[in-house]
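Researcher: Following up on the earlier apo prediction. This time include the ligand. It's S-adenosylmethionine, with the SMILES given after the sequence.
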Amino acid sequence: MQHQPDFSPAADRNKQPILDMLLRVLAPQGSALEIASGTGQHAAWFAAGLPGWAWQPTEVQPEALASILAWTRSQGLANVRPPMLLDVASPDSWPADAQFDLVYCANLIHIAPWPVCAALMRASARLLAARGKLITYGPYLESDIATSEGNIAFDASLKQRNPAWGLRALDEVAQEAASAGLRLAGRHALPANNLLLVWERAEH
Ligand SMILES: C[S@@+](CC[C@H](N)C(=O)[O-])C[C@H]1O[C@@H](n2cnc3c(N)ncnc32)[C@H](O)[C@@H]1O
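Model: Understood. Below is the ligand-bound prediction.
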């Protein structure tokens, strides 16, 4: 029997604004490693909207893989690989020797303990091709921009669920990126006070 895919209303709302930005910042073709694919809605939408890209979804939760597969199979997409298990915090679960033009990671670093951010930066720097990009998407705290009331409430609700979670300061994320050899190359404001951030190798 076909697995009933999980549904995230937020992923349904933000998939098109994110895709519009990916179409602006990415080359027409390449290979992408998606981290924390969740339900698989993003993988299916982006692979359909970026037909020149080979998309590799991943998730830390084994039970999520069936949903990712169901979303991507239902579209009959030839450019999505079967989802893989990947725990950002576990170096051994990252691909050993592959290279990617894009590492894409949405809505993870505020819903994970802080060391996951450093782990994401380090592994991405290792796996990205010379001109590759790490793209992160989600809400951030910015020193020079007032945090929206919605994001303040979201931060409080995250910390209530798990004291190790919470919105991250963009400056501190950028420091972790710099330690891994990455720099912030683009900051794009998207709906609902989310940012799409483009990180590239510091030498470019
Ligand atoms: C809020 S969901 C975001 C899902 C999807 N990226 C989106 O934006 O709709 C956060 C996801 O991060 C995953 N996650 C949490 N910790 C992780 C880790 N250490 N490594 C990989 N994924 C992780 C969770 O399983 C969950 O699917």
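Model: The first helix runs from residue 9 to 25.
Researcher: Noted. I'll compare it with the apo version next.
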